[in-house]
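This is your field. Have a critical look at the following sequence-structure pair:

***
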Amino acid sequence: MFAIRNSLKLVRDAALAVAAGLIFAVSALAQTDPLPSWNDTAPKAAIVSFVEKVTKEGSPDFVPESERIAVFDNDGTLWVEHPMYVQLAFALDRVKAEAPSHPEWKDTQPFKAVLESDMKALAAAGEKGLVELIMATHAGMTSDEFQKIVSEWIATARDPKFKKPYTELVYQPMLELLAYLRANGFKTFIVSGGGIEFVRPWAEKVYGIPPEQVVGSSIKTQFEMPDGTPTLFRLPQVDFIDDKAGKPVGINAHIGRRPIAAFGNSDGDLEMLQWTTMTGGTARFGMLIHHTDAEREYAYDRATEFGRLDKALDAAALNKWTVVDMKADWKQIH
């Protein structure tokens, strides 16, 4: 009888040990997946293959850490860009906040359209109207004052659809990708059509990307010494537009190295991906985020005003860039 009980105990202990081993193995496997929010589809495999190829010493495609530069668009690539660009939402809120000091805006476009929430008239104002709004709401102050305004706004503003802070509407799969690249010796940069000083105040906290690794559009600033205090004053003049063909120029000016990986989502990123991938030598990687998930986020591409993906989508097929289908390739969005 004792022998039977002893045998049963040994069997039970062995079963428990096997079960514990399986749990540990599954847990270890989960921990080794650097991209858990990505489905096991072609884009995830392409990312992992590229990273392994350029980081394996002795590989013909090995790239030294100093040359492992990856650049990311921001709007629509790292966080939500519909129903409008986040910085445009900021500018509209700034117009409304400053309107009491500018009674003339009630009868002047594009400010009149903003105050009356006339999105059709605002859209008709086009790029010229957008520049006017930016100049009126982003200039006439020091860089420190502007940074404070941005930081306060980003902490309190809410997206109209999800009712959450914009900084909570970053894409979880892309946060994992940023971390995965950095863990493999990459230096990650934001290269945005948005304002460089709009993105810098919060980029490190949200993306782990420090201010010096943000490239973006800018307005002119000048050094001044009011009351003996050194300041940088923001002028109502465009300095540089970091969009489309401007992105490679911005990369060259700020980074000084050609990236080996580029990630975007729209035609505004076309030239950045071309600059990154259409060259000989080192292995290169280009990726486009295609917004296909109307249920969890938004679905848009060729016909949208914000984040139009048309020419770049065609170029992706020709240049063998990886295209992420958000609905099919991502387990979760935010």
